[in-house]
Amino acid sequence: MRWVVLVLLFFGMIINFADKSIIGLAAVPIMEDLNLSYAEWGLVGSAYYWLYPVTGIVGAAIGDRFGAKKVLGVIMLVWAVLQFGVLAVAALPLLVVYRILLGAFEGPFSPIAYSHANKWFPPKLRGFANSVVVSGGTVGAMIVAPVLVALISIFGWKIAFACLGATSIVWAIAFQFLTKENPVKAYEQTKKKKKAKLEKLKLKDFGRLLVSPPALFTTLAYFSTYILVVWIAVWLPVYLVEVVGMSQGQMGYGVMIIGIASVLIYMGVSTLSDRMFKKNQNWRISRVYVVGTSMIIGAICLASIMIFQHPVWVVAAMCIAKGLTYAILPIGPTIMINELPERGGLMTSILTSSGNIAGIVAPLITGFILNLAGADEILGYNLSVLFMAILVFIFAILFLTLVKPTIRKQEESLESQASGN
């Protein structure tokens, strides 16, 4: 059953990121149909993130209380309604409202998915499980893109959006009928205790937890990596063409190679972390040291492309940099959940919301750096790369030296028993 849950969460993440990326793939026909200026299109692009961080936290808290199965099913059906609603969009205001609502209801998916996977898998497999969920985002944003482009070209952008809505309905039905909320009855034995803890959680205590080293520096490491995530999504294609000198075709293959290789790398790091944890049961060695070291190496590789800008090296370095820095994405949620297990969705929502804040500020930072460079665009792009490398390096060092996860041997034993069947 747990593998069925994981596969469905993987496909759910694919749909989530396909919903995000299709707006960019359909930019030209949308702007032509609705007669939008670049400024208006910028408004459409940013509207998605206006409520995303807030609803990510609120939705995750609701998921903790009412169960991931119910909440994920509901929000996926809302996605379907919104995607079918695009058929009625005929002007800018409706398009902006659609993007705001889509972002609001997609915000909770990632934290709830991480928390749900954490529930079904024992500690020794959680890094791998989360890496599978994370990889769904890469597939949805990069590998599914040609399919979406084909749909847009053949049937038009509105029908393509509606097709994603139909996919959401299929997923919601499958998730309700093929999965369960909890792994085994052993997990139910702790349910009353966890509900009691949910009621006793105070805002002041939660605030203290968020500024504790494990939560604070894990969040900052996650945030720094998401700056790179957004840069890769928005600026990498332009960087490969204008700075590295690739053709459009070479750029396309380069982006695809980086996406596939990085998935294999961060899944490998997650598997290594899981195996080390299985052997030594030491959170600091198996989780913090492995991820922190990976991020530091990744930051150095990222910085190296400023010096060595041969296309082959740039693609290779980006594969390594993206794969190693992304290690915090699957492992970070396990560390956060460990600090407050009964509020797993809420804790992971802190991470995902920090990432979404990065999604808002990262394009602005890169644009500011490019403006500082003036006419020398190559210098501007290289400075943006250096900025990200330094940011990841600093927060990786802080993560590596200051994060000491809480030891919960008894709870891990119970959860292993619950997740083992």
TrEMBL record:
Keywords recorded for this protein, A-Z: Membrane, Transmembrane, Transmembrane helix, Transport
Subcellular location: Cell membrane
Family annotation (SUPFAM superfamilies): MFS general substrate transporter
Annotated InterPro entries: MFS, MFS_dom, MFS_Na/Anion_cotransporter, MFS_trans_sf
Membrane topology: Multi-pass membrane protein
Transmembrane segment boundaries: 42-62, 71-90, 96-115, 127-153, 159-178, 209-238, 250-267, 288-308, 314-337, 349-373, 379-403
Record domain Major facilitator superfamily (MFS) profile: where: 5-408
Matches recorded under PANTHER family: BLR1003 PROTEIN, SOLUTE CARRIER FAMILY 17
Descriptive protein name: MFS transporter
